Amino acid sequence: MNAISKTIEAANPFLTGNYAPVTEEHVTELVEVIGEIPKDLNGHFLRIGPNPVFVPDVATYHIFDGDGMIHAVQFEDGKATYRNRFVDTEGLRKEREKGTWIWKGMAGMADLVKGVPPPEEGLMKNTANTAMVYHNNTLYALMEAAPPHKMTLPDLGTAGEETFDGALKHPFTAHPKVDAVTGEMMTFGYAPFPPYLTYSVIDQKGKLVHTTPITIPKGVMMHDCAITEHYTVFLDMPITFDFMRGAAGGMMLDWEPENGSRLGVVPRYGSDADVKWFDVDISMVFHVSNAWEEGDMVVVQASRSLRSDISRATENAGKQEGMTDQLGQLYEWRLNMKTGEATERHLDKVHFCDFTRINDDLAGRRSRYTYAARFDPAHDAKFDAELKYDDATGAIQVHTFGQGRWGGEGVFAKRDNAKSEDDGYVILFLWDENAERSECLIIDAQNFEAPPVATIRIPHRVPFGFHAGWAPDN
Ligand SMILES: [Fe+2]
Predict the structure, then answer these.
(1) Distance 467 CA to ligand 1 centre (A)
(2) pTM given for the model
């Protein structure tokens, strides 16, 4: 490591090592494979994340701020092709034209005077860096403060922002839920000013057919939602927006446990008056794994932490104290729609995990298996293994990566002509810090603890990122 990168590391861990952004875009056939790429795996493995081009201030750069870049591996009849490409957002184009940064990102929210960009530029950049969803044969790149970007496959081209014929009037979560049975997509947006929460349904043909505001006491960072066959579930957790707190020198977006935690259940086409709220123990959920109905019960499973200091992620990076309070564990709430009673329990008290995924065909329906990335609290909460939870038996299988090998979100992709829920593969990118090499792992979901069926070397570095996704071949 040279002197300059040491200085950057001291100033910001999210800009160095395998967090450091890459500058080039590639299309590369992948030929170095340990094992064999299954011929019954066909489609696109996708991983999106922040890849900043212009950084206003290295010291205050937040991992949420970077420009979106998608890394993809296309599988076709036992062959694999790697591609990476920026999401070509309007904000990035404007900054490239100017030759420097315009928006200050999360740090801008902590500085309500200097942090505000010129009025003609809008308050925030739509970075499109967080997650993706595949709906109505279309891939979208998402960030929760802005509309989705429509993307093209396999070239990862950007077709522009999607407003659903102008019907979308609110920010669009990075985690909408698609009901594979009906083809509907449930989404929402949150805001620091009223309406704090707005809910929408988009039909199977991509038409926005239902929108309603949902009343919550205060603006909160609401990162995910859940669906069941008949309901949508909102997670009102206490990372709150507070302009007065910001003006008084505190964080405008901060952990405020006094605001409580509650889950709100609304019929799929319901409105504000139909929401049933359930008070639950104070906690934070970034990612739901799934939800479903059992008689009068709505069951929600998610990765749940005791608290979150997400606004301070940069200053807290590398600190051990209190870290595990902020790492999720698999958890369940059972909400009785008749009595209004909520019960809750840990599904796992051993492992810390996040990036929970299921077989997406079962979103909103009873699912048995959850896959999740396991945190290693001793190594800056990097992911040292992928987990497979069996909700029928309580068994937890662990696919460890080996020393100095760090994973990311694993996505389940079913094999061609799959016959059961876990008949397929869990796919993820991995960074081997020993060899300084990126890999793509294909794990047999039914032989989960065995070595990967294929370990594919990527001749370019794939930085750590956020969410993974899967898109079938059209
Ligand atoms: Fe997320």
Answers:
(1) 6
(2) 0.95
